[in-house]
Write a structure and sequence with these properties.
By secondary structure, this protein is of the alpha+beta class. The chain has two domains: about 40 residues; about 140 residues, Immunoglobulin-like (Sandwich). Helices cover about 25% and strands about 40% of the residues. Strands 1, 3, 6, 11, 12, 13 and 14 form a seven-stranded antiparallel beta sheet that branches. Strands 2, 4, 5, 9 and 10 form a five-stranded antiparallel beta sheet that branches. A two-stranded antiparallel ribbon has the order 7-8. It is elongated, with a radius of gyration of 39 Å.
Amino acid sequence: MSSVDKTLNPAAAQDTPTFESLGLTRPKEGLKDKKLGQDEFLSLMVAQMSNQDPMKPMENGEFISQMAQFSAAKGMKEIKDSFASLAESLQSSQALQASTMVGRKVLVEGDIASLPEDGELQASMDLKRTVPNLTVSIMDDAGQLLKRIELGRQQAGKVDFKWDGVIDKGLDADGGVHTEQASPGKYKVRAEVLFDGKPESVSTFVFDKVESVSLGKGLQGVTLNLSDTGKTTLSNVKEVM
């Protein structure tokens, strides 16, 4: 009869236990995903300490180790995010800087340089030490030697070089040096020094015109597309004209 009374009596029905009153269900909003933060981690650690086995208590070192691991993981994520933000900012800055170079000449490592019409071919060498004699050779695209210039003793550091395009073609009938003007175009530059009778190659740097700029994806950086040298990175530029 009591069950019938509860069914017929609305007041009695309110006292009937439900799943919610028994704690068998949970509000949907409580099921939302939530990342484990530092506060949640400390709450879990306190609960772990409160419910640990009295006969086998955790050592202090274990707690310290857990805290250190959590702090390290959190710190690494923050560092990673910071570096990603910094890299993005640097790339934007590089892109802006590189865009201003289009149409200008930059000094980069290379051995191919242009002789302009009514102008001079320019190159430079970066000597690591003082040399007794520096020699620069100019060759055409077939590798034929056109001009060999002795620059003599040079101090360590940057040494600039210019070639006006004049080629020595031997002696004329009067005993003078017969010269010829080279055509405008690309020529190969080679530098070497002589130590103890043995020649040593020296890296050369040439001025090249920036035709365009390419932006890489992610952290690939900025690429300069040059007229003679091809592609190079912004970090390889030694000087801008």
